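User: Second chain of the day. Same drill as before.
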Amino acid sequence: MDDHGRGSGPRPTDSGEDPLEPDPRNPDPREPGPLDPRTPDPLPYEGVWRFTAPAVDASVPQARHAVRDLLYRQGVPVSDDLVQGLLLIVSELVTNAVRHAALLSPMLAVEVAVGAEWVRVSVEDNHPYRPTALETDHSGEGGRGLLLVREITREAGGACDVEHTAGGGKVIWAALPLKAVRVL
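Assistant: Same format as last time:
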């Protein structure tokens, strides 16, 4: 799996703008804007990381392990239950991409985005068709992955969706809230 990580790194302290001039992107000077020194620095675990992998069965456990290792390496304040839910979501989404999109999309991408209060995982492929969550068929094998993703997301108080990409493919994502531990 190729890691194209984009973590949080050093940020410039001087924007080069005159601090006495009003920021046109922030009409209310009493509220911190994007370049305002009162805007809090990102937490040490915040960032976006992207992994690419071939659309083959072996990529399912590799993606799951890569996401787990990333969360722990970055020190993201996640409970064991939340980690297990995220890993199950990643497994289901990568499995769907391998099973249903590999013919048109020999590569897939897994992205993990972590903010101060949430973590979002997404899987992108180049197949143009949006999947639909099938009704549960107790006699059949499979067909319940997206239902499981939706249920895990709902129980955690998060959101999930499918979006088209500019290249004609799709990205399926799930964002779950962190029960953030205050970093001092």
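The first helix runs from residue 59 to 74.

User: Great, on to the next one.
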